[in-house]
Design brief:
signal, alpha/beta, 2 domains, D-Maltodextrin-Binding Protein, domain 2, single chain, 14% strand, transport
């Protein structure tokens, strides 16, 4: 059977009338006559289940008439199952959302607008990074409330640096420092590479673009034909051409994180939760250091994070909203931070996360928030993100590959076609 495109599924949903009462009501009563609300909470990360269950338990202390059940779905199947469940009427009442998908779900009426409720309750979300809050706003309406965030930091192998007698990376480092250090530690005989230049948009592509003053998406147009964007990408492909970083084929079966943990990679760009596995291994923990990303023509990184959203067709809109609001508060942030599994987005709650891994300089993720650029997204993000891997791939094979400027301009043209269709709808 040919799978139904997600836009078709969501458009079909837009034609289904909302359940009576789902437009929301004011006041504390979730159900008439003292009934109970039963909320399903959809998420995909099993490592966060204990912390989120603790958050839910605290929520229920304040709202004993609301039952909340975690519905865990692995990320590999999360979105297809969610789309089918929304159309079929069996989706969770509250569920995790990310930047690549928020505009699509909001556009086709699958999410409950939250702005009026937040305004009524005096919730400004000012405690969360501003550009993260704006990621979950569509057409002036707030549809998602942040729960956590991530930027990208440089992970480095102290043992390899010590062996080469190179100072550790710090906030003064530039791209040139990275290239010089990579050349010093590169050891073909031991299959040790200097750093990762993977075809990974969040960890590698976008930070390099932003560090070179480039852009990905602006005013409904692609930025991949911009010379500054191409220059950022060339920093990565140039390292592969010089054999300082593994090419796309070498990375196909072994991801950068696995190469790093195996001692075969001196540096790579990682997310906060990329620190979990190295920290659990005492030997890897002892040799791992973290620093802010090096500067190109400027400092730059990408900020992303998950938000909680409310199913527009939940029979319990007020209870679902109260859960989302609670999960965006200080107590929920402190609980998530203490778990050490995720970096909470509520200001002032991150210290517990830092304290959970004292040997790592986790502060580096927070230090980069002031100059971080929001994760680029539009209605059809998933479509043009797939294009990135397909079209840029031939430039990631090393010497003899397609010049990066050719691939980037091809991508810009195809991406602009997709973006133009968004505007035409």
């Amino acid at each position: 059977m040919t799978p139904v495109p997600r836009r078709t599924l969501l458009r079909s949903l837009a034609a289904i009338p909302l359940v009576a009462g789902c437009a929301g009501s004011s006041g504390p009563a979730f159900l008439p006559n003292g009934g109970r609300a039963r909320i399903g909470y959809g998420m995909w990360d099993k490592d966060q289940v204990p912390a989120m269950q603790e958050v839910i338990d605290e929520f229920r202390r304040e709202h004993p008439d609301v039952d909340v059940e975690i519905q865990l779905t692995p990320f590999a199947t999360y979105w297809p199952r969610l789309q089918t469940a929304i159309v079929g009427g069996g989706a969770p009442d509250v569920f995790w959302m990310n930047a690549p998908n928020i505009a699509m779900y909001a556009r086709y009426g699958t999410l409950l607008p939250l702005s009026d409720r937040l305004r009524r309750d005096g919730v400004t979300l000012a405690e969360h990074p501003r550009n993260l809050v704006e990621l979950y706003r569509y057409s002036g309406e707030q549809f998602g409330v942040p729960k956590d965030f991530d930027t990208i930091s440089l992970f480095y192998n102290r043992e390899l640096f010590d062996r080469a007698r190179i100072p550790y990376p710090d906030e003064t480092w530039t791209w040139q420092h990275v290239l010089d250090a990579a050349a010093e530690v590169r050891d073909p005989a031991s299959a040790v590479f200097g750093f990762s230049a993977a075809l990974d948009r969040q960890r590698d592509l976008y930070p390099a673009i932003f560090q070179n003053g480039g852009w990905v998406l602006r005013d409904g147009r692609s930025g991949f034909a911009d010379e500054a964007t191409i220059g950022g990408l060339r920093h990565l492909t140039g390292a592969i051409d010089r054999d300082l970083a593994p090419n796309a084929m070498a990375n196909a079966d072994t991801r950068s994180r696995e190469l790093f943990q195996g001692g075969k990679l001196a540096m790579y760009n990682g997310l906060p939760n990329d620190s979990n596995d190295p920290y659990e291994d005492p030997a890897v923990r002892a040799r791992t250091g973290l620093a802010v990303l090096p500067r190109g023509v400027q400092q730059g990184t990408v900020i992303h994070g998950l938000a909680n959203v409310v199913n527009a067709r939940t029979p319990y809109p007020d209870a679902a909203y109260e859960l989302v609001k609670f999960m965006a508060g200080r107590l929920a942030g402190e609980i998530q931070g203490r778990s050490g599994t995720i970096l909470p987005s509520f200001a002032g709650t991150q210290q517990a996360f830092l304290d959970a891994k004292p040997e790592f300089r986790m502060q580096s993720f927070i230090d980069q928030v002031p100059y971080a650029t929001a994760y680029p997204a539009s209605v059809n993000t998933m479509t043009w993100e797939r294009m990135q891997l397909q079209i840029l791939g031939p430039s990631w094979v090393g010497p003899g590959g397609r010049p990066i400027e050719v691939s980037a301009r091809l991508l810009a043209g195809d991406m602009d076609v997709v973006l133009a269709k968004e505007s035409a709808v």
